[in-house]
Amino acid sequence: MSIKLYGPSTNPRLNQVQLVADLLQIPVEQVEVGYHECESKEHLARNPFARIPVIETTDGFLYESNAICRYLARSKLESGLYGATPFQQSQVDQWIDWTINELDPNFMTTFPQLWGHYPANEDTFKTAKNIINDKLKQLEGHFKNSPYLVGDKLTIADVTLIVRIAPFFILLIDEKTRKSYPSLMKWFTAVSELPQFKKNFGRVRLCKVAFPLPKQEAQPKEEKAKEQKPKDEKPKEQKPKDEKPKEQKQKEQKPKEAEKPKEAQKQKAQEDDEPLPEKKKNPLDLLPPSPFNIDDYKRAFFAEKDIAKNIQQLFTSVDVQGWSLWIVTYNKSQNEGKQLILTNNLMKGFINQRLDQNFRKYSFAIHGVYGDEPNLEIRGAWIWRGTEVPQEWKDHVAYDYHVFRRIDINNEQDKKDFTEYWVNQEEDESKVGGLTARSLTYFR
């Protein structure tokens, strides 16, 4: 059995499906479909609701990540990933439903505010965070008596839960609060340390202090005064003398629309039926073959406990004719880098949305936010295909605001500077170039 998996490689729901497939040892061909491609004709044929991820099987297409995970686990019931008995299988369904119903709504209340997607509302944020802590207490009670959600073995219920709960521990639930959930954290550590989990999600970095809500900028007094109108004052309604009734306007507009030439409509229909132009080959695919395999290196990186040792192996094994190492620094504007949460959003938006996601198969990096408010920096250490700055970077709207420093692996200082980024990964503890690491992410 093998499947095709469609969606962006950075999407947590896609990573969840890939994790389950890896646990079941089911081969997966991941086809990159960006968020902007979800409404394309090709993808709508896979999923008419324009959602991702989607898998393609011999029986057809299947979407919704939890349905996909159930399908994969059912295809190999002997693995026990869906439970060992009909009762346990129902318990697996029970916990998946509980996770979705109890955690997802509060995630959607808190995180869009943290990321700055919605205006911050301290009351709703605090209420949702309190509910989340109540749910974590309930989970703590369960894990006091059971190593996993169902029985004494890992199931897809545990996978569904950890994918939802990890962001809470990364940004929302601080170290002090987590200490009150020892049984829950023991379960979390056991699952997050699985090689299959680290392959798809990397190492989880738990926050020491919860990220604060973005501060709302004070509204200028003049604007406030404009908004505050006297209570008794009513705006006068002014209608143009010759204004026609709304119904009459609509009647006049309809004939005009009907008068469109049929030739134009035919031309549009023909354009819709034209096949999409073939995708251009990436220049990096046209480079001479290289003995260095980036996918093998990524797997070795996440499996190796001694990162310093891993990097020394990188320096000795990398093909310098086909690959290059870089330190990339963002030149922030005067108003940037003042708040951690906003700088973190800027960094992750650049990594996960603005940079071409197909570039992941040609590169690997640790990129992050360093320093202290109000003088935070965005920078990282990268390895990518080729010996020059690739087109994926040059096409980025902020390319001109980045400084690229190529690392000479024969220069000890260069190697030391590069190693600092990849070894010192403890957020709020580790320092790189004298700056404290605040929020780090992998580009993989």
Low-confidence stretches: 223-227, 229-247, 254-261, 268-272
Mean pLDDT: 84
Shape: globular
Largest β sheet strand count, sense and barrel closure:
6 strands, antiparallel
* Second CATH tier, the architecture of the largest domain: 2-Layer Sandwich
Radius of gyration: 26 Å
Number of helices: 17
The gist of it:
It holds the Pfam family EF1G. The chain is an alpha+beta fold.
Q: What tags apply to this protein structure?
A:
Glutathione S-transferase Yfyf (Class Pi), Chain A, domain 2; Alpha-Beta Plaits; 10 strands; 3 domains; 444 residues; 14% strand
Describe, in plain words, how this protein is organized in 3D.
By secondary structure, this protein is α+β, with helices and mostly antiparallel strands. The chain has three domains: 77 residues, Glutaredoxin, CATH 3.40.30.10; 116 residues, Glutathione S-transferase Yfyf (Class Pi), Chain A, domain 2 (Up-down Bundle); 152 residues, Alpha-Beta Plaits, CATH 3.30.70. 46% of the residues lie in helices and 14% in strands. The chain is built from 17 helices and ten strands. The strands form two sheets. The chain has a six-stranded antiparallel β-sheet, with helices on both faces. It has a four-stranded mixed β-sheet with strand order 2-1-3-4, covered by helices on one side. Strand 1, helix 1 and strand 2 form a beta-alpha-beta unit. It starts with a strand and ends with a strand.
